[in-house]
Amino acid sequence: MVFIGTKEEIKKQAEEVLTKEIGAYIEKCKKDPHPDSLLIAVLHKVQDHFGFLSHDMMDAVGHLMGIPTAKISGVATFYHYFNLVKKGKYVISICLGTACHVKGADKVLGKIEEELGIKIGETTTDGLFTLEEARCLGTCALAPVVKINDDMHPQVTADQIPKILETYFKKEKSLT
Ligand code: FES
């Protein structure tokens, strides 16, 4: 998206991308003696709302805060907790930490990849699942562990994966 027009028109276009609420939050941040130092807080707010940061969103933030988009995208790519691509509705975190690895997490991972046809870091084409790896989910006694959004699945075996995934497919069907 190209932001063009008067200052007011550009502000309106940017707020259309980011929502009025985020626009108002940025206005508040700009009153701070060091608004640039609040850039990360603003990016968090945008990601919390949309789930990721697109180029248009970063561009809109840049226009509203008076910061070059290149600088914003530099910040967004530096910190791993910012997502630059939209994640799936269900984010599967497979723990590949030592305890989970010893208890067969690789086999569980292989089964998830086989069932969904995606690798770590990818999202299914229907936008339903994103597969990520974790290095320890803090529940080593329950290894191997798979987390799907806020649901923890303890002591998972590869054989259980189709059934676990099926519960999320069913959840989706019941919503349509
Ligand atoms: S190593 Fe997997 S939960 Fe700690």
Overview features:
176 residues, alpha+beta, four-stranded mixed β-sheet, 8 helices, 50% helix, elongated, binds FE2/S2 (inorganic) cluster
Q: H/E order of the elements?
A: HHHHHEHHEEEH
The small molecules bound here are: FE2/S2 (inorganic) cluster
- Total of DSSP H or I helical runs spanning 4+ residues: 8
Radius of gyration: 20 Å
What is the topology, as strand order, of the major beta sheet?
2-1-3-4
Instruction: Summarize the biggest pleated sheet.
Output: 4 strands, mixed
Helix content: 40-55%
Instruction: Let me know the average pLDDT.
Output: 94
Percent in strands:
5-15%
| Main structural class | alpha+beta
Which residues form runs of ≥5 with pLDDT under 50? none
DSSP strand count: 4
Cα end-to-end separation? 32 Å
**What shape does the CA trace take?**
elongated
Task: Briefly say what this structure is.
This protein is α+β, with helices and mostly antiparallel strands and 176 residues long.
Question: What does this entry look like structurally?
Answer:
The chain is α+β, with helices and mostly antiparallel strands and 176 residues long. Helix content is 50%, strand content 10%. It has 8 helices and 4 strands, in the order αααααβααβββα. It has helices spanning 7-18, 20-30, 39-50, 55-65, 69-78, 98-102, 105-116, 161-175, and strands spanning 90-95, 129-134, 146-148, 151-153. The chain has a 4-stranded mixed beta sheet, covered by helices on one side. A hairpin with a 2-residue loop joins strand 3 and strand 4 (151-153). Helix 1 crosses helix 2 and helix 3 packs antiparallel against helix 4 (55-65). The model has no long low-confidence stretch (mean pLDDT 94). The structure holds FE2/S2 (inorganic) cluster.
